[in-house]
Write a structure and sequence with these properties.
- The protein is 15% helix and 35% strand.
- It has two helices and eleven strands, in the order E-E-E-E-E-H-E-E-E-E-E-E-H.
- The strands form three sheets. A six-stranded antiparallel β-sheet has the order 3-4-5-11-6-9, with no helix packed on it. Strands 8-7-10 form a three-stranded antiparallel β-sheet, with no helix packed on it.
- Strand 3 and strand 4 form a beta hairpin.
- The longest helix is centred in the middle third of the chain and has 17 residues.
- It is globular.
- This is Cupin domain-containing protein.
- GO terms for molecular function: isomerase activity.
Length: 197
Amino acid sequence: METLKPVRRIVTGHDAAGKAIVAEAGPLPTVVPIEKIPGTVFHEIWSTAATPAPVGNGADPTAGPLVLPPPRHGSRIRIVDIPPDTDDFLAQGAARMKDAFTQIGDAAASTVKADSPHPLMHRTESVDYGIVLEGAMTLVLDDSEVPLAQGDIVIQRGTNHAWANRSGAMCRMLFVLLDGEYEPELRAALAAREEKQ
């Protein structure tokens, strides 16, 4: 399987006198292959756990278990390498998704059902900016799809969705996730839809 270039992270900070410094420069300390989705790799870059975000010389927030959504009132930035969908994955993927989403720290995010349009359907209560850095991707929603090319940007607002790689080559996407809260009318509509299913 094609391997993409390692991600390099530069973290700035301040010395005791308040002078700007490079606190760290090098490879990411947290790079996690997803066992149940072979070829998928999460590259954890940074996260914040409050708004406004504390600005200082705090510890690396990516040290620790992988977690899909951003922290409450926080943000998360990551790169995800996504391999091409295979016939085996599409046929068997739904059965493995609970384990896959458990590994990425949010089993409840998976919304896959027998009639889902893709085995990776999921939802988080967040606003996510997804940017195609390399390759091509298809955004899959409940009843529509959008092909994406390098440079395309998706603003994903808490919708049920999946990322389908139908290109035959690896795709690398950058995601910035912001903690969110559904508006009351939308929360009610989603709850009613869930009851019907």
